[in-house]
Amino acid sequence: MSSSVRFLDSNVLICAVVKPKKNVDERLAKIKERAREILRRIDAGEERVVTTVIHVSEVANVIESLANLTKAIEVVESVLNSENVTVRDVTKEDYMAATLVARERGVSVNDALAYVVMMRLGIREIYTFDERHFASLGVKIV
């Protein structure tokens, strides 16, 4: 896989899509704007990204919970139909490796799963707003 391909964490999609129920502070407003800019570049074909079915599932669950089912379906269909997003399957072995990474590094299992898939595919950069976990995994956050 090309080094120019980046992993797309679920929180980028969630931040770009979910409308807050109350006023947001400046920090969150900047995150949401950054998330929308990342998605704009992906949609325009300026970026190619990889994610997993598990991360798409996370997006669906959170958006359905915070917005509604219709919005969740729209976002999932958009991701699955995008020519610039590759959605990878994960195996039981991927999840077993992720649990080991999660235990050793103190990160969430799904963040560890992203890391495992990234390493398998030779991807070294990730779009995420979870700097704490991914910095401890030694990948470049963009």
In the sheet with the most strands, the strands line up as 3-2-1-4-5
Mean pLDDT: 94
Number of helices: 7
Provide the β-strand percentage band: 5-15%
Question: Would you state the CATH class?
Answer: Alpha Beta
What is the first-to-last residue Cα distance?
Answer: 18 Å
CATH architecture: 3-Layer(aba) Sandwich
Number of strands: 5
Q: Measured on Cα atoms, how large is the radius of gyration?
A: 15 Å
Backbone structural class: alpha/beta
Shape category: globular
Low-confidence residue ranges = none
Quaternary form: single chain
Looking at the structure, the CATH topology is: Rossmann fold
Summarize the main sheet: 5 strands, parallel
CATH superfamily: 5'-nuclease
Give the secondary structure arrangement, pairings included.
Layout: E1 6-8, H1 10-17, H2 26-43, E2 49-52, H3 53-66, H4 69-81, E3 85-88, H5 92-105, H6 109-121, E4 125-127, H7 131-136, E5 140-141
Parallel strand pairs: 1-2, 1-4, 2-3, 4-5
Helix pairs in contact: 1-2, 1-3, 3-4, 5-6
Which features would summarize this protein structure in a list?
11% strand, 142 residues, globular, alpha/beta, 61% helix, 5-stranded parallel sheet, Rossmann fold
